[in-house]
Amino acid sequence: MKPQNFEEGLVWYTLLGTYGLYFIGAQAVVIPILAAVLTLCLCKKLWYQTERTPAAERITIPTSIWIWVIAVLIMEFGIIMAHVDWDLGLRSMISSFLGWTRSWAPMAFLPLAGCLNIRPQLIYRGACIFCLQNLVFILIAYALYVLHIPSPEYVTPWSILGGDKVTWSVNLYEYDIYTHELRLLLFTPFANTLGVVGSVYFCLVRQEADKRLRWLGMIAAAAMVISSLSRMTTLTIFMVPVLTWLLTNFSWSVQIAAGITFCLTGLFAPPLFDFLEDLWDQTIKSYRAGSELVRARLFRLALEGSKEAPIWGHGVVAAQGPKYTELVPIGTHHQWAGILYIQGIVGFMSFLIPMVWTTLDLLVKAQKSVTAKVALSIFLTLWICTYGADIQAASCYYWPGLLLTGIALKQKAPIPIAVDRKYALS
C-alpha cells in the first residue's frame, strides 16, 4: 500500500510520522496546516475543474460538509462576540482563534479534504501501522513504570502559541489523582483524549484487508483505550460495533427480535432499570468515584454559569477552577454543558445541528456503503464520548477518522428503485 498522489502522500507520511511530530511538540500545529494544505489542493482542483474533467477526478462537496464549514465559522464569530461582550482583550482573542484552528476547524476542514481522491484503504492501513507504533510505546511506558524510571517530560517551545501548556508537553504517562493508578498519555495531552483517539482508531483498523494486521491493529487500539483508564471510551469499543450492526441491518428478523425485546423490556421495566442502575453505580461510578463527583459538579456549575451569558457564552475556559471542582476549570469534561458555558446557545446549536445532520446522512449511506458504516461507527463513538470529554479538543489526534468521514459523506446515498406494480404482480 503506497500513496498514489500528492494528497495521499501527505496523509500517509503525516500519520506514520505522528510520534516524530509529538516529540518536537508540533502535532497540534502540523495537523491544522495539513487540513489547510489539503483544502487548498481541493480549491485548486475545483478552480481548474471543467465539464471535460473525467468523472473519477471530479470534486463534489456534499451538503453535510458545507453545514460543518458554516457551523465552525459561526462558532469562531461567536467566540469573537463573547470576547467583545466580556472585554477579554486582543491577546485572549488571538489565543482563542489559534485554539479554534486546532480544535473546531479540523472538525470541518478535514472532512472537506476527504472530498479529494484519497482511498479509505490507505487510511485503514496507515491506522494499523500507527496503532502498532502505539503498542511499542505502551510497552515502553509500562517498562519505565516497572523499572521506576521517570517518563521523559518537557514543554516544547510551541507553547508560545498559547493555550494549555499540557497541549505542548511531552509525557508518556501520568498518575490518576484519585486512585494513583498509572494512566497512559502516549502522543495525546490527556488520558481521556487517548481513550477517545483509541476508540476512533478501533473503528478504522477493523476494516483493514490483511487479517493479521487487522487483529494486531485492533489489539493495539484496544490497548490504547484500556491503558487510558477512561471508563466511557472502554464501553464504546464494545457498544459501538453492536449499535452499528443494529442500525445497518434493518432486516425482518432484526425488526422482529427488536420488537420482542422491547415488549419484554416493557413488561419487566421497573426491576430491569433498578438492576441496571445498581450495576452502573457499583461498577462504573464506584470506580474512580472522585472523578465522577468532580464531573457532576463541573456539569452543574457549567449549566449555572451559562445563564450569565446565554447567547455567546463566556468565550474562554478559566485558567483554574474553584476548590469545589478540585481546581478543574469549569466548561470542561462534558461537551454539551461546556459549549453552553463557553460558547452559549449559538455555539451549542452550531455543534448540535451538524452532528445530528451528519449522523443521519451516514445512517442512510451506511445501508449500502462499508466506508459510510465505518464513519457512522466513528460518529457514534463521538456521540458517546461527548458525555465525558471535549471531542473537538481531540480532533487533531483522531484526524484520520474525520478525513474518512469526508470520504464517506461524498458518496451518494442509495436510491431505492421503484417497481411498477403491474409488472411486479405478473
What does this protein look like?
The protein is mainly α. 64% of the residues lie in helices and 2% in strands. It contains 17 helices and four strands. The strands form two sheets. The protein has a two-stranded antiparallel ribbon with strand order 1-2. It has a two-stranded antiparallel sheet with strand order 3-4. Strand 3 and strand 4 form a beta hairpin. It is globular, with a radius of gyration of 22 Å. The chain starts with 5 loop residues before the first helix and ends with a helix. Residues 416-426 have low confidence and may be disordered.
Give a short overview.
The protein is mostly helical and 426 residues long.
Biggest sheet descriptor: 2 strands, antiparallel
Cα distance, first to last residue?
Answer: 50 Å
Strand order of the largest sheet: 1-2
Give the total of beta strands.
4
Number of helices: 17
Shape: globular
In terms of DSSP E residues, the strand content is under 5%
Order of helix and strand elements from N to C terminus? HHHHHHHEEEEHHHHHHHHHH
What's the Cα radius of gyration? Answer: 22 Å
Spans of at least 5 consecutive residues with low confidence: 416-426
Helical coverage, percent range: 55-70%
**Which structural class best describes the helix and strand composition?**
mainly alpha
Integer average pLDDT = 86
